């Protein structure tokens, strides 16, 4: 599952891409001009950008200089001449698809890029919370959230074992790196802090007489 920014001024195309990304398990955010996309890039981390070239306010070629290093980009545009394609690739785009396009081809190219860059493994997104498992940056609705070392370790364990019930003893051993000696309240305290900071009251479920489970749709 990847978190993808779609930058396309034609709403019907933007919505179509977002819908299809959701169907295959990805999350996305939608920008309709270059300036809006720039604000998203300042506030969030993405696995991939799908971007038109002819955008209002700030065009796709100009926007490339603001894309974080290592973030793959697919240009999706009606500009199909060779010189534009070469320019886009020289600016650092990973792929270039000319409109009109087949959705199945776009999805295939997205998956190929994510596999190659391993981006889909590094970003976890759920209900407005985005966790970059490589940089350890956590944002909620675009704002970075400070977590303690133990809170983050616990969060990462829950993410990597999403939809699996984990006992308090298991969480202690994995996050605190020591065996169970009778005190598991520290796990409960940290879980409550994570629920509050990430707005995950309905996502981190208590498993009766056992422990906790992170419920995710993916």
Describe the 3D structure.
With 218 residues, this protein is of the alpha/beta class. It has two domains: 3-121, Response regulator (Rossmann fold, 3-Layer(aba) Sandwich), CATH 3.40.50; 146-214, Winged helix-like DNA-binding domain superfamily/Winged helix DNA-binding domain (Arc Repressor Mutant, subunit A), CATH 1.10.10.10. Helices cover 39% and strands 22% of the residues. It contains eight helices and twelve strands. It has helices at residues 11-23, 34-43, 60-63, 82-90, 103-117, 149-160, 168-176, 185-198, and strands at residues 3-7, 27-31, 48-51, 73-77, 95-98, 123-126, 129-132, 137-140, 143-144, 166-167, 204-207, 211-214. Strands 2-1-3-4-5 form a five-stranded parallel sheet, with helices on both faces. Strands 6-7-8-9 form a four-stranded antiparallel sheet, with no helix packed on it. It has a three-stranded antiparallel sheet with strand order 10-12-11. Strand 3, helix 3 and strand 4 form a beta-alpha-beta unit. Helix 6 (149-160) crosses helix 7 (168-176). It is elongated, with a radius of gyration of 20 Å. Keywords: DNA-binding, Phosphoprotein, Transcription, Transcription regulation, Two-component regulatory system. Residues 3-114 form the Response regulatory domain. It comes from Desulfocucumis palustris.
